[in-house]
Amino acid sequence: MARNWEAHYEQAAEIDFAPASLLVEAVEMLPPGRALDLACGPGRNALFLGGLGWSVAAVDSSPAAIRILRERAAVSRLRIEAQVADLEAGEFRIEPGAFDLICDFFYLQRDLFPRIKEGVRPGGAAVAEIHLRDDRPHRFVLEPGELWAEFRDWKILYYSEGPRAGHGRPSARIIARRA
User: Fold this and answer.
1) Domain spanning 19-177: which CATH class is it, in words?
2) pTM for this one?
3) What are phi and psi of 15, to 5 degrees?
4) Which of 56, 73, 105, 139 is deepest in the core (most CB within 10 A)?
5) Where are the domains of the chain?
C-alpha cells in the first residue's frame, strides 16, 4: 500500500477544504443536480457542491475521511450521502445514468472509467484531475493522452496536461460532457 489513508486523516491537524479549481470552473457551466464525488477524502469537493445546492453522494475507503466529511456536512447543514466503500473491491456501484456530474480528483482506477461514463446522464459531465507519469516511480499515474482518450467520444470542454503551481507532479485535467 502506497499510503495509509486512515492514519493520514486521523492525524491531519489541518485539512485543506478548498475545492479543486477545475471543479469550480466546471460547475459554472452546469445547473445543480445530482453529483458523485469518487475517492472524496474528507470531502472538500462534496462540501463545495452541497453548498451550491447539489445533491451529493460521496465515497471513500477511509472511515476517518468519511467521519470528517459527515461532521463538516452536519455543521454546515448540508445533506451529503457519505459512504465508506472500497472502490477497488467493488463495494460501491455507480448507478447507470444517475448523475449529472461525477468527480474524480487524484484517484486512478482504470476500470472505473467505463462506469463513470455510464453513470453520467446525457448532458451531464465528468470532471477529473489525475497524476501523469513523470520521472518518479508511482503506480497510480496516467500516460500522456490517456485521460483524453478515455473521453474522446464525449464533448471535451477543457483538457490540459502538465505541471501546475502548487502540485508536485504533473497531471491531466478534463471537463467532458456526455452527449
Assistant:
1) alpha beta
2) 0.89
3) -110, 135
4) 56
5) 19-177
Q: Phi, psi (5° rounding) for residue 173? A: -130, 135
Nearest to 59 by CA among 88, 93, 83: 83
Model confidence pLDDT, tens digit, residues 68-120: 999 999 999 998 999 999 999 999 999 999 999 999 999 999 999 999 999 99
Structural contact between residues 99 and 120, judged by C-beta atoms closer than 8 angstroms: yes
143: which DSSP letter? P
CB-neighbour burial class of residue 38 (10 A; exposed 0-12, middle 13-18, buried 19+): buried
The maximal CA–CA distance of the chain, rounded, in angstroms, is 44
Distance CA 141, CA 108 (A): 7
Count of residues making up the chain: 179
